[in-house]
């Protein structure tokens, strides 16, 4: 507290925080390296925490996302129905941006992601576990330059970041993201160096509708050359107070995860609370 008091005398301090949590019922079609390819009815609970603080020219921000769902699979008249975990993940990112008055603002960021609980693929009627808590876990560190602008209430608010990234993947049993199939040893650790271009946008179309998205393109050059890309689009329509209609489409390609294009399409209705 004394440190904050001293800092407030030396530089202006402003803090903001946004938190969202919700319960959703989704009809979705997906192809994912953790869950396989399927159509399902999913119930999901999620939470997002978005704190930010401005210390003079520094803006410190964080994004914490938690999600856990259960999906119901109807396998036909002759096979039993199944209930499996779905969209169970934890993702965190912490960012520091120096607003020096330049056209491009330098930034540094660190992040971490893993599975919340367990994930399974189906092989026939047999469940095959593909991930669990902290197995695998992905951490990243990046630095570069950011540029953004806009006001989400009047026009799209957006940010574009270009920088270098270091990424580490650690695993114990589930080594799909760490093992090099060209070597006889089973590898449980993988480190990568890459160039990253990442963008975010948010637009309040009116008081009831919101459109937001994220896109990322990575070119990995060590230990081997490959590229990966992700695009996510989300549209939300408020129906009544806490009741919302959600439409989302996500596309992803990463050869380490799957040689096929991964996708997740979902339409859902849920109760969302913001404060």
Structure description:
The chain has 275 residues and is mainly β. It has a single domain, classed as Beta Barrel (Outer membrane phospholipase (ompla), Chain C), CATH 2.40.230. It contains one helix and 14 strands. The chain has one helix at 2-10; strands at 13-32, 36-55, 58-73, 82-98, 105-115, 118-123, 126-132, 137-149, 157-170, 189-204, 209-222, 226-240, 243-254, 258-274. The protein has a twelve-stranded antiparallel β-barrel with strand order 1-2-3-4-5-8-9-10-11-12-13-14. The longest helix is centred in the first third of the chain and has 9 residues, at 2-10. The radius of gyration is 20 Å and the shape is globular. The two termini are 25 Å apart. Residues 3-9 have low confidence and may be disordered.
- The structural class is mainly beta
- Percent helix among the residues? under 10%
- Mean of all residue-level pLDDT scores: 88
Number of strands: 14
- Beta content comes to over 45%
Do you know the CATH topology? Outer membrane phospholipase (ompla), Chain C
Shape: globular
Main beta sheet: strand number and arrangement?
12 strands, antiparallel, barrel
CATH class: Mainly Beta
Give the CATH architecture: Beta Barrel
Q: Tell me the number of helical segments per DSSP (H or I, 4 or more residues long).
A: 1
Distance between the termini: 25 Å
Poorly predicted parts: 3-9
Strand order of the largest sheet: 1-2-3-4-5-8-9-10-11-12-13-14
Q: How many domains is the backbone divided into? A: 1
Order of helices and strands: HEEEEEEEEEEEEEE
Q: State Rg.
A: 20 Å
